[in-house]
Fold each of these.
Amino acid sequence: MNTIETINERYQQLQSNNGSSALTPIEQNAFNSFNTLGVPTVKHEEWKYTRISSVFNKEYAFNPENLSSSITQKDLEAIRFPGYEDANELVFVNGLYCSELSTIRSENLTVISLDQATKNEYRELVLQHLGHSGKYIKDGLNALNTAFAAEGVFIHVKKGNIVEHPVYIYNIVDAKTANILSQPRTLIYLAQKAQVIFAETYATIGKSESFINQVTEIVVEQDALLEYYRIQNDAAHANQVNTTHIRQIGKSLVNTVTVTLDGGIVRNNLNIAMEAEHSESHFYGLYFLKGKTHVDNHTVVDNVKPHCESNELYKGVVDDSSTAVFNGKIFVQKDAQKTNAYQSNKNLLLSNDASVNTKPQLEIFADDVKCSHGCTVGQMDEEAFFYLRSRGVSEKAAKSLLIHAFAVDILEHIKPEKVRQYVDQLISERLGVELD
Amino acid sequence: MPDTPRSSHCLEIRRNKIRNKIKDMLSIKNLQARIEEKQILKGINLDIKAGEVHAIMGPNGSGKSTLASVLAGRSEYEVTGGSVEFLGKDLLELSPEERAGEGIFLAFQYPVEIPGLSTTNFIKTAVNEVRKYRGQEPYDAVQFLKLMREKMAMVEINQSLLSRSLNEGFSGGEKKRNEIFQMAMLEPKLAILDETDSGLDIDAIRIVANGVNKLRSKDNAVLVVTHYQRLLDYIVPDFVHVLYNGRIVKSGTKELALELEERGYDFIKNEVGQEA
């Protein structure tokens, strides 16, 4: 059975088992869209450099509930972020939330299934915000995830509350016996003056292939603060398409850092809709690639209201025969006067076989704004390299120091110390030197 | 020099006799080098012994900085002939980091700015790599800090400068002071100062020169590459060589530097022109 047939079968099965719910119309619409749009090919403008259809068209199992039991506490140990003893931990196995492996320490943090959420006081919130990413991302994969939205999770942070323990999210794929398609889905809502820190990572266990098609939608209310750190360091046979869609519907502050160190094909869509005056967002990315890893970061900043400020800096170190794509769009809508929007993408190419495609884009419909964008692709600075070596530093260590120096202005934006140390450790291991 | 008093001449001869008994630290023979298709060094001969300070002077484009770069192992230059022996080893066979390990230090004319690389971490890495090369145990954090404090005081450099990214946003004087600090930390046998005075005011020159003088000993040597005489007021050379058109065309003592300052390089050009 091919993947499309598997999906069809599972969709029909779920719809008949669960009966009709508040989410049924959303799911049905999305499923129809998926059938119309299909999986994007390179002919799709936004997928020009990322051949996702060939990966998707392999055969995948898509029956997560039968497999979740084989993942144990021990598997979890291997991928935990440091400081987990003092964190909220949300574990997804094959795309489904696994409450047995998860730990919620903060009382002001609610984690329930989206289906459940539509049956209590969160109903209106969910119906209002779920699926908003589809307005920005018009492709079959986003629709496919939404078609199974009821299996997703709703995370709510109460008004005026600071979630003191960080929220660590682990996506584990059990690919021990078969190729696995998984679709984590999350809607996160930060009520007024709420503050929360998320750190998320991925691990495919087993030798079969995995395809994660994830959608995370986040709604940020007035005076709320969101920090979101995503660390992608999965196996070379693990592919993912990841959409993070953030709406700042009240004046708020959002900080995100996306670090990609390993994987097969990784596509990150990051949208930030600045829908309230005086909002601020900072988003940073680092990709440090080896082997044949392909990473595609597509970002959209949509300035809808005036007086907003956004800073975007993505940096890439691209080695071996890896490939990187950066596509950053800034929209400044007609009403968004006094917008300050900055965007930059810088790349360091370390090998003749590696390549980078970068495309910064600005679309401005207002007339009183400050915007800048730019990109660079360069090689190791020979003069700096010689300088370090002339001081006795070996070729390898000099290279490592220069790569780390290049990456450091992204890494310093990972504010939680434990998470930053974790990433630093991964990078020193990659570079094969001690960095302190 | 016909008007040199006879006694001083004898002294010179006696000194040279003594000098000849000491083995050379650096011995450059007929060194030729080019960059791309341009031949820059056309046969340099120079011997330096431990404890000596040599100055290389010369007009712009004469090959001074090329000589410094070739000795440190900069790869853009291709050595097309001749030899360089350093403490009994063929220097030209060694990589830049091996040369540093052997005890060569080049203070750059234009020290490189490296944003994101902490000066202290860089120096710690360098010191320990050099120690490893020399078969010594690496310094631990405490030992390193102690050494750093000592050398910081010696070359008058501030902690605040060292906690910043390497040379990033440093003034010209701060960069040069950082070079001398690195030199103090790495304890080289032969320090090559490439136009260390360029772009510095007189106070900065004095501080940098003081640092160099404090590091001088009977066991190490300094090669000062400079266009102007003024640095040599502070770092007093034993020998001065004039480099012109890829060759050393005149050698002498520190008085030669004063003569050059007074008469300019044209007289050298004329002399060489007449000989040719």
Amino acid sequence: MAPISIDAAALLTSVQSIVPEIIVVATAIFVLLLDLAISEEKKHLLCGMGLLGIGVALFSVYALGQGRIEGFSGMIVHDGMGAFFDVVILSACALTFLMATGYSEWEGTHKGEFYSLILLSTSGMMFMAKGTDLMTVFLGLETLSIPIYVLVGFHRNRMSSLEGALKYFLLGAFASGFLLYGIALIYAVTGTTKIPVLATMLYDPRILASPLFLAGTGLLLVGFAFKVSLVPFHMWTPDAYEGAPTVVTAFMSAAVKAAAFAALIRVLLVALPGMQPVLWKVLWGLAVLTMTVGNLSALVQNNVKRLLAYSSIAHAGYILVGLVSGDVLGGQASLFYLLVYAFMNMGAFGVVMLIAQKEDEGYDIANLAGIGFKYPALGALLTLFLISLGGIPPTAGFVGKFYLFSAAVKNGYIWLAVIGVLNSAASIYYYLRMVVYMYMVTPDVEVAVPRPPRILFSMALCASAVVVVVLGIIPRSVLEIAERSVLSLLM
Amino acid sequence: MMDPSAYLLLSGILFGIGVAGVVVRKNVLIILMSVEIMLNAVNVAFIAVGSHLGDVTGSVFAFMVMTVAAAEAAVGLAILIAIFRLKETIDITELSVLKW
Amino acid sequence: MDFINSHILSLMTFLPLAGAAVILTVPGGRDNLVKTIAAVAAFLPIPLAVQLWFTYDRTVAGVNVASQFQFVEHYSWIPSINVEYFLGADGISMPMIMLTTIISFLAVIGSWNIDKQIKGYMALLLLLETGMMGVFCALDFFLFYVFWEVMLLPMYFLIGIWGGPRREYAAIKFFLYTLLGSILMLIVMLALYFNTTDPETGGHTFNMLHYMQQSTHNGWLQGFDVRILLFLGLFIGFAIKVPLFPFHTWLPDAHVEAPTAISVILAGILLKMGTYGLMRISFPMFPDVTKWFVIPMAILGAINIVYGALCAMAQSDLKKMVAYSSVSHMGFCLLGMAALTPAGMVGAAFQMFSHGMITAMLFFLVGVVYDRAHHRDIDGFGGLAAVVPVYTFFITVAFFASLGLPGFSGFIAEAMIFIGSFGVFRTIVMISASGIIIVAAFHLWALQRVFLGPLNPKYAQLEEINAREIFCLAPLAVMTLILGVYPMPVLNLMNASLIRLVDVVKMVI
């Protein structure tokens, strides 16, 4: 047997392609070990360490630059798209940590495993966004999901938390099964799991016509649909979102969605453009269903967390509109929207978290009554995030939606744009309902007393607000980066 | 090289059994086992296709799936134990703090 | 000075916003400081408007010729989709810009007695002014849309927080109606964008002036059916704002619940945005469809006139009556525009300006009596003329102006509209003329019930109108009178542009 030769240069490039991920995993392990070494009063150090690690990882993304670095014989690539999603995911993670400074203290999640699970999940997301082989995508997906199952059930004395975790876990594992079987069938027909190779195989009409391949693609899509919570695979979302510790809900809504969409974009735009006619009709239907069901269900919610959960389902539908469009503009719009969505949604969850004081009971919409005048800063921030979610100018949410729907119109999906715009209008009703409670309803009892935010917590909220406003007025540079990212994918 | 279609049929049947189990059964433990059957159906398919093509990817994938399945089972059982401690039941229909 | 001259429209648009930002930094409890800052921020555009007035060249038309727009500011904003920051003024927008500065400033003065959350109120009011000004100055459709939407939220909050008892309902109704209009506008905007090209760069464009050149339309847009669809989308969007029957039901609710100064702005400026949009966007962009659509428009205008007047007559709430009289008066604008004659078009634009002032006066006056009596029931007063003679004088002036008595600007506008449209659609105009009688009737009837007859002893001690309130009313009353006798200053401002507008629509085959 010949000795296995090691190509040192290739190994180095491989390592290079996953530097940010390595940093995140190392931080996760370090935080876990540090937890053992420090006393109870110093647990906030864990959070600081995590933030430091995220900062270094963000810097490494910047230092790696725009170039394309392929690693591990084409299993992973650090390209513009990967870098873009690394930034989105790491930002969401950073916001989570900043908010956790306060949240952990109130709800007792100042634990090493809490932070380390978030970091591990983050690394999984980053792998998923950069995976160019269905195997890496799958492993990334599981690395992100398993810690999230635990995090959702982190309050193990609260039944709602555990119940959310169980439902999420069962449906998540079920969905993984579909995804895997889809991959297996695609592998059976094409003999490969590499996304770029798949793309070249699809020029063969025999493969395209093979029922096994169609079934495989369908199952793959179902698996993804579960993860990004597209209707009708969304049943877990409201429960998991409502049950989870709010800081985790915020993290899930922003980062998990971004990572899953990253992989979906890669699969759809790189591997499957050959499937255009059939697949795009299915996606069209999914987008319409997701937007409509999400918004209609949100209209009747009285629990703020559940309301935002349905709104996040609806937003998955909007983002899908960009994918249905299927061209550079559509991809660019989806990327931009995912970034903006991370900030505005986490911001909204952050304010709600402060106002609610307590898990479970605190999230009734009536609890918002009178907040607007008593706590003008909180009221103004939440209003800003909500109008951005509703897509009203001059916020980033408007620019994002505008791009999504113009991509649809450009590619001839006029009805899709019309339905989307109507949906977006309906959504404004329930966002405004929260605003109405804050400013126009006099509370039955006393106005809720929000928790005084920690400095880092306030920083997270302010940063989100700045991003929402600035990207609403001068979105230019970020849009250009998003465009380059999509182009890097199609190279 | 052997013909994988019989194996694919087997894996299809196994997968179907798994899906049916998840959908029909009420006991969380059995649902978990059904999920495992689904994942093992995937493994059968991967290994069969891999050895038919003489490609190592299929076997590697099967190993990965096994690892992930183990991790998933660990987390799932942990959640289940936590629930059992609080509620003394693992019947999915009795978990209804959150409306479906 | 150079900077002021070259960015005059931007300054007028964003000075109020800057004022709002300053207000938000004022510590709590300093209410008078807040009000002063708001007044200054709302006043500053007025000298700039005077500057505009003196430097505006009245001989060039604008409308669809980019080079003829004045005070133009043209920068790239979002280059990847060719969105531009493009402001400019012509004869269609000039009177509206003037009106906005005056009414907004008076609205700030009129809000002096607000005591609930004055900081938020003034900031929103100034934000609203920025939105309105932006709508009238924008020549890029995307920018127009952004300003149009920016206006929506402050208005929603101003009604919803500072309004009357049913404020939430009124605010959300206003919001949803207007939003529906904006959505239609957004879709039309996207369709226009992807089916027109900038003749210079070859890329898609949001430039309104390019949309008006038929040669830039490609493919899809050249089909008449498609253009009808797009026109209708825009028309409904604007009709909701005007508001035209049957999209008018939000207006009485919004007016009744809104605080006085907000009603003033709503009726004085916001309603004009609907008709302004038709003149600035719908007519020159779709001249062929406009011609095809004139009869329905005239009929809608007539329905508005008669139906609005009848509704007004049936009201027992003074404010609701004034609100419905706005519906009636805005019908005249539509009738004049539909005639597509110079006289009709100029009359319509003059009616927009004149009605802006008259209705502002009316809402101020209703607010004055409501502040004192805490109700607005027409039959609940009686014989007030003896108690509050000055107030009675002002309300008589305003009512006479509103019912179109010769000597007031409303008469000139309505006369021009009738002259301009009579030759075109006789029957419709004759039906509309009956509206005038109803308008006169309900005004006089209300006047009689509130101010004449035996004095209701409950109001024997009613406080007379105060100096601040007179300060809000007097300029409007004087302008209405002057323009009623000598309307040329305003007519000169817009003649050239409106005649061009009529030509643009008429010339098309």
